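Shipment paperwork, digital attachment
Item: protein structure file
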Amino acid sequence: MPKPLKLGAQAVAVAGLAGLFALLIWKITHRPRPVKVGAAAPAFDLQRLDGNGRLALASWNGHVRVVNFWATWCGPCKSESPALQRLWEQYRTRGVVFIGVDSTDVASDARRFVRKHGLTYPMVRDRDGSVGNLYDLTGVPETFVVDRHGRLVEHFAGPIDLRDNDRAFKRAVDRALQS
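Attachment content:
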C-alpha cells in the first residue's frame, strides 16, 4: 500500500475512534438524572395500548399511582403479572391507579400479552423507550409507586411477585396513601 494511502487510512481510523469517544462522553454527560425517592416522578403522556386515546400520568393527580414497566419478551414480567393484577384488584377501590407501560414492543404482541395474562388495569405504550429513559430503567420489570402529589415513594427493580417484595410493595403503597 502506498505511504500516502496508508497515512490517509490511519487518519480516518483515528478520526473514527475520536468520534466514538466523543459520542461516549456525550452519552455519559447527557444521561437523565436517576429518579430518586422523594423527587417528582417524570411526567409522561402516552398512547393507550388499546388505541383508545392517550394517558398522561398527571391525569391521575390526587391518586396514588403504580407505574409498572414491562415487555412481552421478559420472563419475570410474565411471572409477576398475576401478582400485579391481584394487587390492582385489591387497591383500586382505595384510589390507587395501576398503569402498565409496555416498553419497546410491537403493539400487537403487547395486546396479546395483556389478554393472555388477564390484565385489566390501564396500559400504555412506550414505543421508543423514551419514557423508560426518563425513569432511568435498568431493565424490566421495574415498578414505581407515586404518591398523590406526584412524588416517587418507592422504586422496585425486578418482579413484585416475591413474598418479601410483595410486603415491601404494600408498605410503599400504604405510605403513598397516607401522603
